[in-house]
Specification:
Mean pLDDT: 92
Radius of gyration: 19 Å
Largest sheet: 2 strands, antiparallel
Helix content: 55-70%
Strand order of the largest sheet: 1-2
Low-confidence stretches: none
Structural class: mainly alpha
Strand content: under 5%
Distance between the termini: 40 Å
Order of helices and strands: EHHHHHHHHHHHEHH
Shape: globular
Number of helices: 13
Amino acid sequence: EWEPERSVTFELDRMHEAMRALLVSFKNETHLFRFVSIAHAPQHSHRPQTIAKGSPEHLVFLFLTTLIIYRSVSDEGFKQAVVLYDRFRWLFTKEILSKTLDEVTEAMRAVGFIHPWEAARSWYGSARTLFSEYEGAPLRLLREIKSVDDFLALKKKGGNCFPGYGPKLFSLLILFYQELEIPEAFSVKGAFPVDLHVQRIFLSLGLADFNTRWIDAVTLAERVRKEISFFCEREKIYVVELSHALWFL
């Protein structure tokens, strides 16, 4: 059965107005932002005590932890990652190359993951690629790419060499690194994590629409990501601030 193209359209003037208004409130700490700020974000609240902020170990910790906050409360995901680091340090080192998927699954189960195999599959595959192809240094990966789209093409070419990572989570990782003022992170274009909450905001405010009865979330998320990224780049907006503002909202 023929279906029309599921094209997404944006009310750009209203979108830009809404994003600017949100940023003003965020920067001036008014409305909701009297009560929450970037300091309340889980990546700042939960870090192993032995890891220095911005260190190579911290970058690896964030690279792997980002994989396990998918479909979960981010705060809990980071808490569990700290426990993993304290109890199973090998998960975060090249020692994982000598381990099996079952061993990673058991470690996930031991710290209370509800779906340990799903978390382990993403962790195991992406960690093995990181340590075997990039010497355990996420910055080596970032130096090879110029955008989120480049990363997705690299992942596809490598036969899903970074399982668990898609445009949303990889964008989130880039923002974590930008917060740490990692130069390589600012060179990656198109990074903006668009989850279901951001999509809901765009739809409920009438900032985005589509010409069919339904559209899949992945397609909508990608169109929103690219539109917001282009807006931020053109307006010289620090994407971390806008992303946090939308997330807290």
